[in-house]
Amino acid sequence: MTTSVIGLIGAMDEEIELLLAQMESSEIVSKAGVKYVRGTLHGREVVVCKSGVGKVNAAVTTQILIDHFGVSKVLFTGVAGALDPRLNIGDIVISSSCMQHDMDVSPLGFERGVIPYQSVSDFPADTYLINLAEKACKELAADGYLVGKVLSGDQFIASRDTVQSLYEQMDGACAEMEGSAVAQVCWMNEVPYVVIRSMSDKADGSAHMNFAEFTVKASRRSHSIVTHILNHLE
Q1: Tens digits of per-residue pLDDT, 192-225?
Q2: Could you tell me if 97 and 124 are in contact, meaning their C-beta atoms sit under 8 angstroms apart?
Q3: Ramachandran bin of 33, using left for φ above 0, alpha for ψ from -120 to 50, beta for the remaining angles
C-alpha cells in the first residue's frame, strides 16, 4: 500500500541542491550507491535523490523509491535540450508522455521508439500532475512552457539533423537521458509521475556554449515549478 510520500528526482547535483536546502528533519538512506534524503518539504513528506545520468540509473533509482520508500507520486526535475522549434532556452516542458528515442528495432519492422512485444512504449504522464505543473507555469509567469513528449536516450544530442528527425519523426518536445526510464518504471508499478524539464540548450550543436551557463538558471526555474506543485497537491 502506497503512502503520501512524494519522490523527487534529479539527475545532477544542480537539479536537487535547491530542494535539499529547503528540507526539514531530513535523514540520509543509501541504497545501490544512491543517497536518498527523506524528510519534509513545504509540509509534504518527500524523498529527494540524485539518480545519476542515464536510463539505467534513473530506472534503478525510481524502483527503489517505490519499493523501499513507498512513494505515491514521482516528480523528475532538471534540464533538457529543446527539440520543438517553439522552445527557447529557459522554457519549460511538462511531459505529456515519455518515450525512448534510442530504442530502435526498425530492422524487425517496429517503429522507432517501440519496445518489441510490449503493449505500451510511450508512457503517459499523470493528468493531475500535468495540470498542476501547467498551473504553476501560469501563476509563476514562466518565460514559456508547453506540454509535450519527452524523448530519452543514452546520448547527448548535439546535431541539428538529429534534432529535426526526433521532432518530425517522433514528435519530441525535448531530449534528455532519464525521463522515459522513470516513466516506464512508474507505469509498470502504477505510480503517477510527471517530468518537468527546463531548456538549457537547443540540442543543435551549440550546447558547448550554453549548457554549463544555463544549467543552474534552468534548474532554478524547474525547481520553482516543483515547489509550486508540492504546495498545491491535494
Answers
A1: 999 999 888 776 655 555 566 677 777 777 778 8
A2: yes
A3: left
Closest CA to 230 of 51, 67, 72: 72
Tell me whether strands 44-50 and 123-124 are parallel, antiparallel or unpaired. Answer: unpaired
Q: Where are the alpha helices (DSSP H) in 29-159?
A: 55-67, 127-139
> What secondary structure does DSSP assign to 176-200, as a single string?
ESSHHHHHHHHHHHT--EEEEEEEE
**What is the pTM (predicted TM-score) of this model?**
0.91
C-beta separation of 157 from 165 below 8 A: no
Tell me which residues are annotated as active site: 15, 201
pLDDT per position as a tens digit, 24-67 = 888 999 999 999 999 999 889 999 999 999 999 999 999 999 99
DSSP state of 107: G
Pairing mode, if any, of strands 145-152 and 172-176?
parallel
Distance CA 32, CA 24 (A): 24
Q: Which three cell numbers stand for residue 223?
A: 525547481
Nearest to 149 by CA among 132, 125, 120: 125
Residue 186's identity, in one-letter code, is: C
Ramachandran sector of residue 109 (left: φ over 0; alpha: ψ -120 to 50; beta: rest): left
